[in-house]
Amino acid sequence: MAAGPDKPGAPDSGADGAGSPGLPPEALPESWQPLLGRPALAELLGHPLASAALTEMRRLLPPHVAVHSLRTFLLADACARSHGTAYDRVGLLAAAAFHDAGLVGRSPLGRGGFPARSAQLLDVFLAGHEVGMGRRTALTRAVREHLRPFPARDAGPEARLLHFGAWLDVTGRGARQIPGDRGRLAALAPTPWFAVSFSARVVACGLRRVLPGSPVAPR
Q1: Which residues make Cβ contacts (< 8 Å) with residue 46, sequence separation at least 6?
Q2: 17: burial class by Cβ within 10 Å (0-12, 13-18, 19+)?
Q3: pTM of the predicted model as reported, rounded to 2 decimal places
């Protein structure tokens, strides 16, 4: 459910998202805590779908990629607020949590590469939490297309915002739209040399058509 135009970041209060509430915030990794305390995330931590998405992100992603995913959401939300854009806030958090999940593991990549694999993983997660087809379609499209150089002309707000947040966090593109936000988030939850290591992993996936081994570090 999209938020109203007067509240571009309002959490979704619909029935979608039934299921396990996931871990309590204090059980999530210490490196996440400075970002989880930001209002845009803190306001969502009690929502079952948001909590479950964060739990899955903890299980699936290496720590530095998980932190990137949280920063991606916060940058996307900041952009939405600065432009008064209405969007599915809880859904975008789930999309951000899964948008790089296809980079992890040793599975062969099919058509569409790791973004398509990430979208598939998100779709399975959303279906398991009884999220409706229309909402699932919008969110999985956002993940599937986030690596495009630019969003498609007919992309919805979730696709545009996820694209903006992911590219800004890795490359700095779009920083003028929300001056200072990228630097502040990087200072709160630093991941030194992340852009270099992340880009190398993306290239490796593209060249090999198979996911490189990426075991999740113990927590």
Answers
A1: none
A2: buried
A3: 0.84
Query: Look-up: residue for tokens 């996931």?
Result: 22
Count of CB atoms situated within 10 Å of the CB of 128: 13
C-alpha span between 78 and 205 (Å, rounded): 30
End-to-end CA distance of the chain: 34
Are 23 and 58 spatial neighbours (Cβ–Cβ below 8 Å)? yes
Residue pointed to by tokens 């920063």? 71
Taking a C-beta distance cutoff of 8 angstroms, is the pair 60, 101 a contact? Answer: yes
Name the 3-class secondary structure at 2: coil
Residue 162 sits at the vertex; the CA angle it makes with 107 and 77, to the nearest 5 degrees, is 140
- The alpha carbon of residue 194 and the mean position of all alpha carbons in its chain are separated, in whole angstroms, by 16
Q: Please list the pLDDT of the chain residue by residue as tens digits (219 residues).
A: 334 333 444 444 344 555 555 667 888 999 999 999 999 999 999 899 999 999 999 999 999 999 999 999 999 999 999 999 999 999 999 999 999 998 886 666 666 788 999 999 999 999 999 999 999 999 999 999 999 999 999 999 999 999 999 999 999 999 999 999 999 999 999 998 888 877 776 666 654 444 444 433 333
